[in-house]
Amino acid sequence: FEEDYDIEYYDDLPENHYHKEGRSFSYPQSPIIDLIMKTAAPNYVPKNSGDIFDFLRDSYPLPGGLHSPYHEYDFVIIGAGSAGSVLASRLTEDKNTTVLLIEAGKPEMILTDIPIMAPYFQSTEYAWQYYMEPQPGVCKGMINGRCFWPRGKAVGGSSVINYMIYTRGRPQDWDRIAAAGNYGWSYREVLEYYKKSENARLNGYEKDPTRNRNGENPVEFVPIRTKLIKAFLEAGRIFGHPTIDYNSPHQLGFGYVQAITTKGHRQSAAKVFLHRQKKRQNLHILPDTYVTKILIDARTKTAYGVEYVRNRLKHTVLARKEVILSAGPIASPQLLMLSGVGPKKHLNSMGIPVLKDLPVGKMLYDHICFPGLIFELNTTDVSLHESKMLRVRPILQWLKNGDSTLSSPGGVEGIGYIKTPISNDPDPIPDIELISIGGSILSDGGPGGSRAIRRGMRIRDAVIDEAFGSIDRVARDTWSAFILLLHPVSFGGIELKNKNPFSHPRMYGNYLTHSKDVVTIIAGIRYVQAMAATFPFQKFGAKVHKASYPTCRHIPFDSDEYWECAIRTLTATLHHQIATCRMGPNNDPLAVVDPELRVYGIEKLRVVDSGVIPRTISAHTHAPTMMIAEKAADMIKATWASMLPNYISYS
Ligand SMILES: Cc1cc2nc3c(=O)[nH]c(=O)nc-3n(C[C@H](O)[C@H](O)[C@H](O)COP(=O)(O)OP(=O)(O)OC[C@H]3O[C@@H](n4cnc5c(N)ncnc54)[C@H](O)[C@@H]3O)c2cc1C
Fold it and tell me: Residue limits of the Glucose-methanol-choline oxidoreductase N-terminal domain (predicted)?
């Protein structure tokens, strides 16, 4: 095998790129973070010491004492992320259906369960270390001026490293998707699938007919909150936004964050959908296994299996019924193109024989946010700070009851949807989401701080020092609201770099290339500034920090020009890349899959993951992706229920 491929896991970077920025990039002083890095990122420990904490990880042995998988399954699913985990679980509810679920990453472990640690895992082996192609004028404050696009590489996929925020999007988002010709995807129809998985434990909303308490996926309020979230909600009310379930289809508003946790412990898609099904004889899960190609019969244009690499050996496995790509919005289009399905001209230029000319990767939307609007407070004990959290007492408390500050999903406490004056949308669709943090990106600093949050975003130390040093060095109390651009006009795309399946593809964000995107974020900034001026925040003496970015010197603070420069300096993705395998009717020139998620022109091949979402939705994408997989499972079952039964035995 080694002769076949040049394995480049982190192909854009030198092998030890974590340390590239010198000492500034080494992780740190805190014993718990030290433990995490040793556990989750063997790259951090001295060479040859191996993955010494492997025994702490979950395991997915093949059932029935099998040593290797079968040669053939009914379904082969590529990627055990938010979508793949749900799909594998639902398809194997029928004992006669066999599924092989292949995942490149490792199973999760107890440290990934700690919600406050969410940002810490972006620099570990639980994340693909993807970088967006260089784009002048964005991410100017990031290392090498590159935007970092980590994605989950684990059994559970991105749901193992995400912030656990539960959002569904507005009804109009989905109704527009349906109105574009995607039958079955109206809000009324998708609501049933949101509800199907949901086990909502949200005090006060028990009787809400849009929520369900009987599904598998727990959704709860965070048990511990700072006073800052109360101020955020109060200020929201002053501005006319009721405090509500922000997922309510009936109105826009602000609310406490709803997290996919159980008693303050992360519940990844794997934990929820695969753990209990591990013993199913008909579900085989292969972690640490890398799919390199989908096998497609060139004559019949039918997918019949996949090629994968495990323990450095190449194998093939056959799919009797379907191959399902759930490798996420970057790897799914990459695998399609490597397998001959993609834009003809591009595949020709790569020397890949074209089986089907399709606009794979021609579209890519993302949600970016601005994390640099930070308010200094005149308090010392109000905001969340690493130095107060990663201590023995809160850790023991979390282990016992799950209700210490460790249960906060990366510090996120509340969400507010607003429609700025820039919006010309006739419907009640917000253009900005405000994410209220019980601190800021500086909550990991101060003497002895890990600096893991800012490093997870790849912000240069020099930028933090110059812009925020005065509050960072003394670990001052802060409040911030991330300003998330919900419906960017600008969109990017994805292409192969070469034919090597171990190479990362070329990812183009094309951020902020439309001026409306910039002015909308600035309108969000002005909104938050006005909120911070209200009494609920002035109680804490909230004062906007005058960040002097090295990239924005000589621009007067607080001018629109200054904020544009600041946004272009700290351009942070919220990791919601979508539309790379866009769903659409057959008259949609950018559609890759049909409304039943079947790849156009190739039989027995579907894409089921966040990459099929055809246009931006007012939501983070984990719950929508699980919903998509729930719906896909029913569509797949319906397809095969109408066919002849399968008499082939498992042996
Ligand atoms: C850091 C971060 C924070 C986020 N925070 C939130 C949040 O708070 N709330 C929210 O709703 N959304 C959040 N998101 C987004 C959300 O988690 C994702 O949109 C969602 O998980 C995508 O699901 P998916 O199934 O499409 O892909 P993934 O969950 O990424 O799964 C794809 C899987 O395929 C595997 N894979 C890829 N290539 C191969 C291959 N060649 N062979 C085998 N396996 C392969 C990957 O390792 C991965 O496990 C966040 C994402 C990230 C990265």
Answer: 152-175, 328-342
